[in-house]
Amino acid sequence: MRRVVVVGLGPAGLWSAISARVADPSAEVVVISDEKYLTYSRCGLPFVIGGEIGGFDELIITSIDKLKSLRIQVSLESKVVDVSGDEVIYEREGEVHRIKFSSLVIATGSKPFIPPIPGIDVSGVYSLKTIDDGLMISEAVRRARKALVIGAGAIGLEVAEALVRRGLEVVVAEIMPRVLPTILDGDMAKILGEAIRSSGVQLMLNSKVEEILGDSKVKCALVGGVEVPCDIVIVATGVRPNIELARKIGVSIGVAGGIETDEFMRTSIEGVYAAGDCAETKHLVTGKPFTPLLGSVAYRQGKVAGANASGASLRFHGSLGSTVLKVFGCEVGSTGLTLEQAKIEGIRVVVGKVKWLTKAEYYPGAREITVKLVFNADDGKLIGGQIVGGEAVGQRVNLLAAAISCGMDAESLASIDTCYSPPVADAIEPICRAAEIALKKLRK
Predict the structure, then answer these.
(1) Which one is catalytic: 43, 220, 278, 432?
(2) Is 220 a catalytic site residue?
(3) By the 8 A CB rule, do 284 and 305 touch?
(4) CATH code for the structural domain at 114-237
């Protein structure tokens, strides 16, 4: 009988296990996880801290009963320490266990990146990756008045908004010159930055956190030479692939810092697959390896890795890094390459950008939306898009991702047959309008 062992029970691990079961109903499927919780949404953690979701238990998306009904065995609070031949070696409650496998899926996720800032180990400094992190932060917030968030990426901004909701004075420090620096160009980030500042948050851009000060507990931080008082510090400087186990057992690590995989999610060792934040994949525009570090990608990679570990031949073709979030009243989305990233890749580009409304201009409640599209100047194909607005951003980003995947150019994107109704959508779709603007430039 085939036995598939999955290491990790995040989205990639869960769906690897489920897909392994579906692909081979007779297989034995075992999941080993070092966490004490079943699969939960890490993306939901800031919203529990902010009070929009009632409790951390609401983030758990499966149950032992569901997994038992699928005949998936789970061992929680179990740390895999090695793989020897066809055996996984793990520790649980002080005891060492061994289990043989026919195929192995590594779904170890990612770890917070903690920068080497003097004083970062002082009490009152937290990162947010797990439910236990969220519980500690929620408790600390009860006694805090001033907070410093280090990092203006998605998690940093979501946590900042959560702390504002809890009544704290919040400062966000970002070493780069703009918020969301990996998914937005400066002009688009400026729109969001204005919304953040109007919500009472102090944004310190181009500002390095040089030191965190405090004896038994954090009292302030030195940011760009300025002393910032704070009772609590949240370090949101991104995550890195958790490749500790993979490196130990000799799996090849790629140029982007994740586990090297092919389109079948196979690693360099036969019978060993990888999925989720720990794994590299191909960028669908550049063709180069990268680590998307996104739950949506982890889910899809897990489905492929698990099925193939059970004998299937599914493919994961790559990712565009499509991202969407909502902070401080703004929905923000991005897919493909930004203008800055395209230039780094040496791609000649043409940009179409437009500010529009989400409904007919006369209809009550119409919200502003700004669309920026990036096209390859050589063939006119769409290679990236960014959208910032009050609503209806997510599905537009999905449309742009589909357009890039299908190789649509400016002319075809400008000609999409779109829908219209005053309370839902304007007669002129802003994506089409932005494409028209780019098309005029391409035809010059």
Answers:
(1) 43
(2) no
(3) no
(4) 3.50.50.60
